[in-house]
Amino acid sequence: MSFVVQPQAMHFDGPLALRSGASISGYTLAYETYGALNAARSNAVLVCHALNASHHVAGVYEGQPGSEGWWDNMVGPGKPLDTDRFFVIGINNLGSCFGSTGPADIDPATGRSRGADFPVVTVEDWVEAQALLLDRLGITRLAAVMGGSLGGMQALSWPIQYPDRVAHAVVIASAPNLNAENIAFNEVARRAIVTDPDFHGGHFYEHGTVPKRGLRIARMIGHITYLSDDVMNTRFGRELRDAVAYKYTTQDVEFQIESYLRYQGDKFSEYFDANTYLLITRALDYFDPAAAYGGRLADALAGCQTRFLLASFTTDWRFAPARSREIVRALLDNRLDVSYAEIDAPHGHDAFLLDDPRYLNLVRAYFGRVAAEVGAA
């Protein structure tokens, strides 16, 4: 059963220096909290979100049916990340379109939407902004940081940037950087957006348009990569919308998989901001903590003082298990405490959001250990 939650916002007069060399001031971060912070302030867990998610990790908004958080099966009372034991924080990343300052917001200096002028942001920038918000909440050390996919990259970056501020990092279905194939998928999706005539160089707000065609295609491309071949064949196969083939023109929707992808694309184009999509996929592309160490991931992780849980899924070809094993090897090279699970699941990359009992029980057991450490058992 979901619980009722209330979104919050925290304003920072800034400035926040970004890795690009730019800075942003006068920004706001949207966030939510669940559970209670204990007297020792030792039971806080930060959950980092992936590409199209937000600070709304769990629970529901009062009077809004269907408003469950994106990880509601993972976080809540009695759930694997148990809010009866932990104080859980979800923060919407800078540049997003769900409450934190982003491209659609007005720049006080110009009186115009920031649009394409919004500065480039990185995973490391997001982690720094998260740390500033935690400072305001009086949380100097996290019991754990947790995330899947792009959220897992943030969870990996936390103990690199703030080794003394996080006891555990839970990194799920993630990677130490994107391979060329993943960057290529992101670039094709971005080109779909920027070549949409309604994009107007990123300043479409002033033209009263939305590049929905580009957003639809971008989402369709992304969604293909989130599902495994097995899942697509099982759910859709070569099934036609009608029993008779050749009924439609070449531009019509004939196969069930086509109908599904178009539905996902249409839905996405109604709520997601095109400039935010460009920003977040670029942050994915840029993330590579080993780059500053000649490509040696073990050197990048050498200063970590954190214990780790990593999990991957056998049919996830976008963030394949081999990428998680790279992180595990680098942690072991540093003699760090790491647990790793490779789960045989058919769902592809989306498995980290689903209800696989083995996966949920793994996370539950790990957070049971964390709870015992912080006196929240």
Automatic annotation (TrEMBL):
Keywords: Acyltransferase, Amino-acid biosynthesis, Cytoplasm, Methionine biosynthesis, Transferase. The record marks R318 as: Important for acyl-CoA specificity. InterPro entries: AB_hydrolase_1 (IPR000073), AB_hydrolase_fold (IPR029058), HAT_MetX-like (IPR008220). Pathway: Amino-acid biosynthesis; L-methionine biosynthesis via de novo pathway; O-succinyl-L-homoserine from L-homoserine: step 1/1. NCBIfam families: homoserO_Ac_trn, PRK00175.1. Transfers a succinyl group from succinyl-CoA to L-homoserine, forming succinyl-L-homoserine. This is Homoserine O-succinyltransferase. The gene is metXS.
